Amino acid sequence: MRAPTRPPKRYEALADEIAASIRAGTLRPGDRLPSVRQAAASWQVNASTVFQAYYRLEARGLVRAQARSGYYVAAAAALAEPEDTSEPDTDSIAVDVGERVFAILKATMRRDVVPLGSAFPSPLLFPLARLAKTMAATVQKLDPRASVDHLHQGSAALRRQIALRYLIDGLHVDADDLVVTNGAMEALHLCLAAVTRPGDSVVVESPTFYAALQALEQRGLRAIEVATHPREGIELAALAEVLERQRPSACWLMTNFQNPLGSLMPEAKKRELVALLARHGTPLIEDDVYGELYFGARRPAPAKAYDRDGLVMHCSSFSKCLAPGYRIGWVAPGRHLQTVARLKLSTTLTASTPAEAAIAAYLQQGGYDRHLRKLRQSLAAQQDAMLAAIARHFPPATRATRPDGGYFLWLELPPGVEAMDLHRRAAAQAISVAPGPIFSSRARFERGLRLNYGHPWDEAMEAAVAALGRLASG
Question: Fewest beta carbons less than 10 Å away: which of 7, 216, 282, 465?
Fold first, then answer.
């Protein structure tokens, strides 16, 4: 039985009520919502509650604010959201996805391809020129001995800056409890190596990020796919049954803006998740690379915020929010700190010293939060544009998620439209997409499609979505 969750706050309930009216067609695209004063009187709440509800709906792409005019139902609201929790086979399975994934992703690596299937945001969204100047200035002053000062855990200056980011978000993580890595993928691989052995089973979401499946395959591990809701993440009742019956060695989950669904696990559910895993002594490898890309009022807490037993191994990086290509990530491995640090020392020794120094200096100079606010605004606007284009061009039965952050949409195509076929036909028109079967160890989600809205919206993007819509319409 699923543990009870906290009741929704009044503004959340109000937003859900309005969203239900939009989905039911009572409120249609272009309709004006009641003014804040009218809504406050009608629902017997204060104006602040109405504003919070409208902001929440705006973040979900359901309504749009027009200056000096009010709030209107967005065109993208005509799209229904996926509602069904996945129902995977929960028996563990040996993973064999590498060739399939690589063959599909080759199409995203060409500059002449519209990158709707890419796993990366546009480099145009990042302050790369300022970072380059910072690196040039920092390298000139770099102590030659710095490359060997912190081999096993990384730059002390950078770890202090990362610890400060945790503190800003209300988490106490000591700088000495962090290991700097070559991107988040190395952090995640190190965590797997620390808590598993070949032949062990690891829980993943369904669908899950294909790189997680590739990591399991490389280490000779088995995958257990667990039922996952498109808005709220992994189902705890299903997970509890798997933990009891199969005793997996670890869980690899994204609790914030999961790739590919964009789901955001509610904080009460994260707390329940951590407590459930603690009862079984099961480590959680938490992939939180999208946590800074939220569209709401504050950063959603990671599961690590509720960890009292050192079982949550929190992994993140600067690749998705500041410095793609610098390959600087980190992990807060909890009770597995020494194991992870030794594994790092015995494999890649250290991350790039100049890149570590440059990012530490950039963070010390200030301006990171200003950059993040601008980045989030860009991503939210690009999501709006893509959802509106999908609503215009795709078949009416198409469903699309409306994530509250990140830069991925998950589409459920209408019956009869196969994602792999759409991928092949789109590739012939120099458009990349990420088809659903690469996000499953069993090649499921035949009608699933992940699209990347992390690139500035322009005529080429609009034309690509329109072409996809035509292909999906037959």
Answer: 7
